[in-house]
Automatic annotation (TrEMBL):
Organism the protein comes from: Camelus ferus (Wild bactrian camel)
GO molecular function, one term: transmembrane signaling receptor activity
Position of the signal peptide: 1-21
Protein keywords: Cell membrane, Disulfide bond, Immunity, Immunoglobulin domain, Membrane, Receptor, Signal, Transmembrane, Transmembrane helix
Superkingdom of the source species: Eukaryota
Family per similarity comment: Belongs to the CD300 family.
Protein name per UniProt: CMRF35-like molecule 5
Domain spans labelled Ig-like: 18-125
Membrane topology value: Single-pass type I membrane protein
Keyword check for Disulfide bond: yes
UniProt subcellular location: Cell membrane
Gene3D superfamilies: Immunoglobulins
InterPro entries: CD300_family_receptors, Ig-like_dom, Ig-like_dom_sf, Ig-like_fold, Ig_sub, Ig_V-set
Gene name of the encoded protein: LOC106728985
Assigned GO CC terms: plasma membrane
Amino acid sequence: MGGRTTWLLPALLLLFHPGSAAITGPKAVSGLERDSLTVQCQYGPGWELYVKWWCRGADWDSCKFVVKTTGSEQEVKKDRVSIKDNQKNRSFTVTMEKLRLNDADTYWCGIERAGTDLGVQVEVTVDPVTTHCHYGPGWENYVKWWCRDADQNNCIILVQATGSKQGENTNRVYINQSKRMLTMTMSDEKNGL
Ligand SMILES: *[C@@H]1O[C@H](CO)[C@@H](O)[C@H](O)[C@H]1NC(C)=O
Ligand SMILES: *[C@@H]1O[C@H](CO)[C@@H](O)[C@H](O)[C@H]1NC(C)=O
């Protein structure tokens, strides 16, 4: 009898501790700005009909629920985020669309239940979209620009940099003189990029 108790206790602790094997997910996922990303979390048998959720914030106790399922396989969508349970293969998918840089955060995949919910932490990162241009020797001190339109003579200059300083970094253009390279970040939605 005593042997059975000592076996049961650690097994129960393992089963019911948040982040335990009852639910698993990717440790980290990343997506490009304005693109979308999906997170798939899996759960053990018996949890099919429970409500699954996606919560934002590193702190388990104060994270903010973004979307929750209804306990069915019906997809639930809120703003740019949706959640869909696949009870046949015991997994649920969270999709984040039109990603913004400030969507990057620590999130949790979880299952609602009496007492403490089950959950597993997922780190979401959002990378800016960048493009590079190279220039030949002798052009180091010329003004570099990043212009928008098919017609070069009428295009709108979104950013320009003089390129006189080593490693010049304006908000969205980075010039590395030793590589003779411009790196543009296309992340400012206000400029309609
Ligand atoms: C479960 O099924 C869904 C829908 O068919 C699929 O998209 C998903 O990749 C599957 N997940 C696993 C872990 O097999
Ligand atoms: C610029 O490019 C050089 C050569 O590849 C590299 O060593 C250096 O780290 C770059 N500078 C910065 C600030 O990224």
